[in-house]
Amino acid sequence: MKDLIIESSEAILKEADIFWNNPGTIDTIERAAALLSEALANGNKIISCGNGGSLCDAMHFAEELTGRYRKNRTSLPAIAINDPAYITCVGNDFSFDEIYSRYVEGVGNEGDVLLAISTSGNSGNIVKAAESARLKKMKVLVLTSTGNNRLSSLGDVVVAAPKADYSDRVQEIHIQVIHILIQAIEKQLGFE
């Protein structure tokens, strides 16, 4: 068992080291934070989406903004598309590929930001959500992994974790980035 724990912890540290030592990482996250902060400062909202663990990250991001992160402050407008009745309605009546894009079409406005999270960057419903956001003149922040993928081409800012053998390594980078983004938003909006 110890070998498994050591092997896993070494893999986590290796992926984090690759990501955080990439010369462009800090600048990219800074641009992402500015994109989100500007939207919120201008009275717009952030809509987030993902599948599986990435949806959990999207929900965590939205609840930290509407609730609190480290300190009490004004609630910030963020929504994770996670209503099971809505998702099953659209999935049944249209298709699973449209569960997020139809929501963005109905709720998104020009100036809002879509936080699109996909470890592969090729999830059809996340790609369609980003396409819908583009049509609504929203900004798109992508959290994905490196390599060729359809989602990256739709992002105003793309934060890409190192491509890994398993999606959990990518998700571990994503949650680090999400926490930093929340902290940066709070600082840029004067809450820190």
UniProtKB/TrEMBL annotation:
Q: Which residues form a coiled coil?
A: none
What is a biological process (GO) this protein takes part in?
Answer: carbohydrate derivative metabolic process
Which Gene3D superfamilies is this protein grouped with?
Answer: Glucose-6-phosphate isomerase like protein, domain 1 (3.40.50.10490)
Annotated PROSITE patterns: SIS
Q: Where is the SIS domain?
A: 36-191
Recorded hits in InterPro entries, A to Z, give: GmhA/DiaA, SIS_dom, SIS_dom_sf, SIS_GmhA/DiaA_subfam
- Any one GO MF annotation of this record: carbohydrate derivative binding
Give the protein name, as stated in the record.
SIS domain-containing protein
Originating species: Dysgonomonas gadei ATCC BAA-286
